[in-house]
Every structure is written in structure tokens, then in C-alpha cells.
Amino acid sequence: MREGITSRQAGILCFLMMMSSKLLALPSILFQETGYFALVIIFILLSFETLLLFIFIKLKEKYINLTFYEILSKILGKIVAKIIYFLFSLYFLLAIVHLIYDNFIYLREAIFEEARIERFLLIFLPVICALAYKGLNSLARTAEFFFVFIVIGIVCCLALGLSSISEFTLPTFENISFGLTFNTLFSYLFWFGDFAFFLIIIDKIKVKNGFGRTIMNYTYFCFLFIFIFYIIFYEVYKNTSFMHNNAITDIIALTNQVGNLEKLNLIALLVVMFTIFYQGGVLLYSLNQSITTIFPKSIKVQNFITFIITIILLFLFFFYSTQKIHVYLEDYGKYLALILFLIVPIYLIFQIIFDKNKKKIKKGVKNEKIN
């Protein structure tokens, strides 16, 4: 019996994953490269990511009870399917390391500048292991419970940031070219593959009439939050936006309307702390599912021990020691993202459109059993 989650729970996980690291260093990085044109870049990339999820939902409607591996095996054969799953496992591994890096730097600067990475890993890794090891159903129910608090925290950050704006000014786009736009979109493609997990859990989502609309509504909700966040952030700091690497805290740093700033920072800190645990849990769960699919005889406990050791070694001796994780992801991660989030989805689109054996969800069907 496969563990299953509802469309609402799937939508909440999509919301939390889409948030990812987009509210920390990315706003300042994009502004440094493209200025106010970063608003156009983020809109295009968010639209692209939303389109990806729409394609994945259509794939679910076509192959209701099949795993993504079974779908790939049916279309491309088992060898190619395992190669694609290996690339996904590599993506999940790098995404976890990236999550650790961005959030440790953020928490160190926001709470305690002398904090050591060992303490952060000692807290973060056991929690995400527990969430992932318990299974998708447990993880989704926990995320569902805390979802309201996370949304309230984000709304508070947006409201406080909005109160810091003295006057709105229209952004000016200067020295923008097609080449610059294309290169920027390509370079940051890795940051916008957050729905990769959806493919790994595609067979575990319970199907109801209109389930796709439910999931997409949560995604549109998150899209709106993120885009408004970028607008407010750039309005607050204007031409100095590139200097502020912790956007979710910095957006309320100039607020003088309410109480003590240190207490206000707690709102942003809680939002980050809640989301990173769920993001880490989903990524680790997806990593384990990918490896288990490639190596069916692997043992779950041994997998998790191997993952933790690999993550620590990769983080400490490769990324953290060089302080260039963003550079590596821009230079090399984009090629991995190109394969997984452009080439594979385009092939899936043709499969969805031209395969004559297309299955449709009949109206009135309330739920499809998961065998």
C-alpha cells in the first residue's frame, strides 16, 4: 500500500518548495546583475516554474497511478529512466547543500555572527532526516498544520516592508539586451526547479476531480507572494538593493512604525526556520526515493547515513570552504537544470499531446484508489 497525500497537501508542499531560497540572497544577486530588470527576470522564471508544474499535473492526469520511473521506462526505456533518476538525485543533493549554505549564512548574520556550521548541521540534519524517514504522509500532515502560521508570517513581512516605503517610483530599465536577459535566465535556472519533487511523488497524490486546480491555486498564491516581495524589496532599497543579501529580514529593517526591530526580525526568522525544515525534508525524501528506485535493494537506514555523510563532506570541503556555491550553481548547475527542467519537460509535452492512449479523469470521479 503506497502512502498517499491529498491535493491540498501537495499544493502546500508546492507552495513551501517554491519559496525555497528565493527570499534570501537571490533578490540582491539578480539586482546586482540586471538592476530593476530583475523584476522582469523573476516574473519570467516564476512563470516558467509554474508552467513546469502544470505540465507535471497533466502527466499525472495521463498516467494516474504510475510512478515517474514507470512513465519514463514506458516512454524511453529503463536505462534512460535510471540515468534521468540519477540526475534528479544529483539535483536534490545539490539543492540540499544550497539550502544549508544560504540559510546558515542568513541565520548567522541575523542571530549570532560567531555561530559555527557544526552546530547548525547538528540541529538541521537530524530534523530533516526525521521528517523524510517518517514518510511523505507524515511530512505533508505536519506542513499542513504549520502552513497557516507561515503564510501569516510572510504577510506580516510584506506589510512591514510596505510601511517602510515613503513613495513609489517606477523602475527604470537600462542597458538591457536580449543576450543579457537570456544569459541571466539560463544562469539562474537551477533556482527554479523546485517542483522536481512533484515528479518523484507523482504516484502518491490522490486524484480527485479538480485536484490539479487545487494544486495550481496554491502555486499562484505563492507566485503572487514572491513577486510582490521583490517589488517591495526593490522599492525599499532602490539602487542599494544589491547590498542586502538577507532580503526577508532586510525588507523590514527600515520599519519604524511598530515596536522594537529585534522583535520584528523574529517574524522573518520564524518563517525561514519553518520553511527550511520542510524544504530539507522534502528534498531528502525525494533523494532517497530516487536512489531507492535506481537501487531497489538498498536499505533505507544505510541510505540516510550515506546521504548525511555525503552532504556534510560536499558542503564543508567543497562549497563552504570556497564560499563560491552560487558561482558553481550559475556556471555548472544550469546545465543540470537545462536537462531536467527544459529538455525532459519538452519531451513530456510531446508525449502528452501526441500519445493516442491518453487517459482522462472522468467528471464525477471523486477519488482514484492508490494501489
Could you please describe the fold and organization of this structure?
With 371 residues, the chain is mainly alpha-helical. The chain has a single domain, classed as Amino acid/polyamine transporter I (Up-down Bundle). 71% of the residues lie in helices and 0% in strands. The chain is built from 14 helices and no strands. Helix 1 (7-19) packs across helix 7 (136-163), helix 1 (7-19) packs parallel to helix 10 (211-237) and helix 4 crosses helix 5 (78-110). The longest helix is centred in the last third of the chain and has 34 residues, at 261-294. The protein starts with 6 loop residues before the first helix and ends in a 17-residue tail after the last helix.
**Beta strand count:** 0
Distance between the termini: 6 Å
Mean model confidence by pLDDT: 86
Number of helices: 14
Q: What structural class do helix, strand and pairing data support?
A: mainly alpha
**H and E order:** HHHHHHHHHHHHHH
CATH-defined topology: Amino acid/polyamine transporter I
CATH architecture: Up-down Bundle
List the uncertain runs: 360-371
Number of domains: 1
